[in-house]
């Protein structure tokens, strides 16, 4: 890929784009796209690092805009850490040159690119002592865990939390935050995930392939990052008044005497600041698996190549 050039009077940049929904991850390509312009209340950010959630290629917002119109070729990626390079009309609260991190809008071109335009309210200032690679790993997994546990799960100290996918990007955040706020965490996953889940703070671990989920006993909160049959079996474990929180689509199973919620994470400046402060003072550890440069990212995003944990793409050295 040649260095960024000028094409037909427009600045162009390197970006990873998708055009073919049926092709999935195999359809990702490194391409040249026009640099984005800042709309009202936007900032344009020079991206230093971008987080990637592979399932985003299954989300409708990757393919269509809010009006349902085809928006391909779409730039992939939604998490970012970088430096503000310009402000849109009327934008307040952030300034050019400021380090920021957060979540880019679902329906617009994303963060696997040299520049991205984002509504300023979806970003938080990034303290100077937090590396861009670390910061880019936090927004989706950290905010999903925070909102699932506290906003939707109503976690209180002393409650028992069943955290599915506890060794994953979201699950390790769920486990650490639930422990900090006084929850008792039973993590789940595959046999190979046991040690990692325990290292991140789970007090028990259930291997979903060979342990009996019913042995867990009653729980107050199920945080479901797996879904399907696992969700069905978990709903029966929820105490009266308890909650099932799903981040994998509409809930398919409801507790007999409790609440079931599914949600999509929203960016939240105050919560981003809570999360990054915990990383700075050691209360939260990141779970970064693969780190690749934008030029090599297409190969690194292949499921066969990707290591477990959060995938982060470095855009600038
Ligand atoms: N609603 C939202 O706002 C939101 C936000 C973030 C993420 N999500 C969703 O949440 C899910 C998890 O995301 P993530 O980034 O944490 O992914 P991840 O890092 O891949 O973590 C998922 C974990 O669950 C394990 N797992 C999956 N299926 C399993 C099964 N049937 N039995 C045992 N273990 C299983 C995975 O193991 P393997 O790697 O071995 O499969 C992995 O350890 C994804 O579906 C993602 O789309 C939703």
Structural account:
With 317 residues, the protein is of the alpha/beta class. It has two domains: 6-137 and 286-314, Medium-chain alcohol dehydrogenases, catalytic domain (Quinone Oxidoreductase, Chain A, domain 1); 140-262, Rossmann fold. The protein has helices spanning 132-136, 139-152, 169-180, 194-199, 228-235, 269-280, 297-300; strands spanning 6-7, 10-18, 29-34, 42-52, 74-75, 79-87, 99-103, 115-119, 123-125, 160-163, 184-189, 204-207, 219-224, 238-246, 259-262, 288-293, 310-314. The strands form three sheets. Strands 4, 6, 7, 8, 9, 16 and 17 form a seven-stranded mixed sheet that branches. Strands 12-11-10-13-14-15 form a six-stranded parallel sheet, sandwiched between helices. A hairpin with a 2-residue loop joins strand 1 (6-7) and strand 2. The longest helix is centred in the middle third of the chain and has 14 residues, at 139-152. The protein starts with 5 loop residues before the first strand and ends with a strand. The structure holds NADP nicotinamide-adenine-dinucleotide phosphate. The site of NADP nicotinamide-adenine-dinucleotide phosphate has 22 residues, from helix 2 and helix 3. Residues 53, 55, 140-141, 144, 165, 167-171, 189-190, 193, 208, 225-226, 247-248, 264-265, 308 line the site of NADP nicotinamide-adenine-dinucleotide phosphate.
């Amino acid at each position: 890929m040649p260095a960024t050039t000028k094409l037909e009077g427009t600045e162009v940049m390197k970006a990873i784009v998708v055009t073919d929904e049926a092709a999935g991850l195999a359809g990702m390509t490194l391409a040249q796209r026009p640099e984005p312009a800042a709309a009202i209340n936007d900032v344009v950010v020079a991206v230093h690092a971008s987080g990637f959630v592979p399932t985003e290629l299954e989300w409708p917002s990757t393919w269509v805009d809010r009006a349902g119109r085809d928006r391909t070729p779409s730039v992939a990626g939604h998490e970012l850490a970088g430096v503000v390079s310009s402000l849109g009309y009327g934008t307040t609260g952030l300034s050019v040159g400021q380090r920021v991190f957060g979540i880019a809008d679902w329906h617009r071109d994303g963060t696997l690119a040299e520049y991205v335009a984002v509504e300023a309210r979806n970003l938080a200032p990034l303290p100077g002592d937090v590396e861009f690679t670390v910061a880019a790993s936090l927004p989706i997994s950290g905010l999903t865990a925070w909102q699932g546990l506290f906003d939707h799960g109503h976690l209180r100290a002393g409650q028992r939390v069943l955290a599915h996918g506890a060794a994953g990007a979201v699950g390790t955040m769920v486990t650490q935050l639930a422990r900090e706020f006084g929850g008792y965490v039973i993590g789940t996953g595959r046999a190979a995930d046991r040690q990692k889940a325990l290292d991140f703070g789970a007090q028990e671990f259930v291997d979903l392939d060979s342990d009996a989920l019913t042995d867990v006993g009653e729980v107050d909160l199920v945080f479901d990052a797996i879904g399907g049959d696992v969700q069905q079996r978990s709903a029966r474990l929820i105490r009266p008044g308890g909650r099932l929180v799903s981040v994998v689509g509409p809930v398919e199973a409801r507790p007999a005497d409790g609440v079931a919620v599914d949600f999509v994470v929203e960016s939240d400046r105050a919560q981003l600041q809570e999360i990054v402060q915990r990383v700075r003072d050691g209360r939260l550890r990141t779970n970064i698996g693969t780190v690749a440069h934008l030029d090599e990212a297409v190969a690194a995003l292949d499921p066969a190549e990707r290591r477990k944990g959060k995938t982060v793409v470095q855009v600038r050295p």
